[in-house]
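Recap slide: DUF7882 domain-containing protein, sequence and predicted structure.
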Amino acid sequence: MGTLYYGDSGTPIGIEDRALAHLKVAVVTKLRRGESFTLSWQHTDGQPRGRSTLWIHQSIPLRFVFDDPERPELSREWIEDLMRSANSTGGIQLVPENVDTAPITGIDTQLHAEAGSG
């Protein structure tokens, strides 16, 4: 289980590593373009029933922490789904992955090189 830290909130957000890796690509892409947006998700088991939304802006500190040291192969389709939702009035909706076995070539490497993070 990975963790998303946003702003000064004392509450870390637990997100499965694979989902967090895909979310990171979508979020970093939007922020590099200077675009603000919302990020919404449904609460998982063990949390109070409901959903949460964050306003994501480049001036607010953001950190992605992964439990697994290895980067997963990314699904182009899942990233495209996240980016489509990012460009809607509802912002990024953290949606489940659609099965896609074709790896993405270049996008993860390019984003990591440009962002200087892993």
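Residues 40 and 53 are 4 Å apart (CA to CA).
Residues 18-57+72-113 form one domain.
(End of recap.)
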